[in-house]
Amino acid sequence: MSNIVRYKASDRVNHWLVALLFVLATVSGLALFHPSMYFLTGVLGGGQWTRILHPFIGTIMFVSFVILYFRFWHHNILSKNDRQWLKQIGDVLNDREDKLPEVGRYNGGQKLVFWLMTITMLLLVVSGLGFWRPYFAHMFAMDTVRLAAVVHAGAAWVLIIGIIVHVYASIWVKGTIKGMWTGIVSSAWARKHHPGWYKEINGGK
Amino acid sequence: MTAQVLHVVARSATTTTPPPEAAKTEHVAKLIDISKCIGCKACQVACMEWNETRAEIGTNDGMYDNPRDLGSGAWTVMRFNELENDQGGIDWMIRKDGCMHCEDPGCMKACPSPGAIIKLSNGIIDFNSDNCIGCGYCVQGCPFNIPRISATTNKATKCSLCSDRVSKGQDPACVSTCPTKALTFGTKTEQIKLANERIKDLNERGYQKAALYDPKGVGGTHVMYVLPHGDKPEQYNGLPANPSISPTVALWKGVMKPIALITMASAVLAGVLHYAIKGPKVVEEDHDHKA
């Protein structure tokens, strides 16, 4: 059985760095968002530390994501096939692969999640600056600060749901998580889930 | 006022209902009669004295305001502005600024830290520094721009209406010291009655629009003003005419919270159900014979 290199070590490090920072930012962000999640402040050493660290974690996550973005954006342009694939999301979830258009390196869902992450991360970093005390919040009018908080929460909400979908897809499709840890996927995996990509790297066969 | 046993009737970032009070506590109020205020700042000094706060020595900006703004060392400040009146003269508007102790407090709505802001049964809104995390959400929540975050302790600060003194049956420090009785303190009912007498008097003296400032948009306040020009509260250094919790804050710390949590939990649940029903998506390796 032959293997294919899907991710270089630097891709993997970049991905897991974003993932780790996402977990920390989410845990600390949710803690400050809803009282029922306040116990999560314990993860970063209490309320004060959560408040202090969250924006720094978020900023580093954003920078890491920017690097990830420049690595992968060109793989994530939605094609006509991807749009059709997305329209048949019912067939995807019900495992009726034979009815679906051919998938390339990434499927429509993965690409959509990629762009969703891009947009929400941008919104998060910009709105986050808007109410980051004591460094930036004082530069803005009060209504801007208030708007920033609501945009930040809204963008985080969308991003978190997007990541839940992203993580679930990787749990559902066996071999995916291993692929992101080792960088290697089997030929069978590639042929089944990403036939277009498989053909591409095998010179069209 | 007599001493009162105070209960916490609401606390920030808390979804459960606090235990009921054993006895009904009278709502209190401080009345600031602007028509009697001479701008002496004795209230500022008394506040600093009692609460052991000291504002940094600032600069002279050519005006009477000193310190220039509220701060962790100045929970109340006198704000002065001059206004040209219809007779071609100048009206000197002086307003003692500080926490209004809203019945529906925006600071408490915005606060993410359980118990950092509490509401006492007599209506006082108090900050509990032990629980404060310094995020500044209360600053965003406040319709009156009152809370300030201390640069040294990173804790939110504001007037406590001397809750410590009030619980022992004393007046707030500012009220005790006011030389003209522009500041009075007592039950809210009693203070409204007093305000109405004052307004009647002001009406007779030509201030036809004199009014009580107890804005309904925040459920009324436990610090009220008698305004000689009650039709134009903004003239008093931007006192908002119809203050209320900003709709942005209400959305952020209102409906958005449960909806966001429910949808996130639903997404996780959907994953669990899908996996349970459809099972993992596995590649059969013998599929691979061609390679």
Average predicted confidence as pLDDT of chain B: 93
Secondary structure: helix percent of chain A: 55-70%
Overall morphology of chain B: elongated
N-to-C span of chain B: 90 Å
Strand order of the largest sheet of chain B: 9-2-11-10
The H-and-E topology of chain A, N to C, reads as: EHHHHHHHEHH
List segments of chain B where confidence is low: pLDDT < 50 over at least 5 consecutive residues. none
Total strand count of chain A, please? Answer: 2
Give the overall form of chain A. elongated
User: For the largest beta sheet of chain A, what order do the strands appear in spatially?
Assistant: 1-2
- Counting helices, strands and paired strands, the structural category of chain B is alpha+beta
Could you explain how this protein is built, in words?
The complex is a heterodimer of chains A (205) and B (291). Helix content of chain A is 68%, strand content 3%. Chain A is mainly α and 205 residues long. Chain A has a single domain (9-174), classed as Transmembrane di-heme cytochromes, Chain C (Fumarate Reductase Cytochrome B subunit, Up-down Bundle), CATH 1.20.950. A two-stranded antiparallel sheet of chain A has the order 1-2. Chain A is elongated, with a radius of gyration of 19 Å. The mean pLDDT of chain A is 96. The termini of chain B are far apart. With 291 residues, chain B is of the alpha+beta class. Chain B has a four-stranded mixed sheet. Chain B has a three-stranded antiparallel sheet with strand order 1-5-6, with no helix packed on it. In chain B, strands 3-4 form a two-stranded antiparallel ribbon. Chain B folds into two domains: 8-251, 2-Layer Sandwich (Alpha-Beta Plaits), CATH 3.30.70.20; 252-283. Helices cover 26% and strands 17% of the residues of chain B. In chain B, strand 7 and strand 8 (156-157) form a beta hairpin. The interface between A and B is large, with 50 and 44 residues.
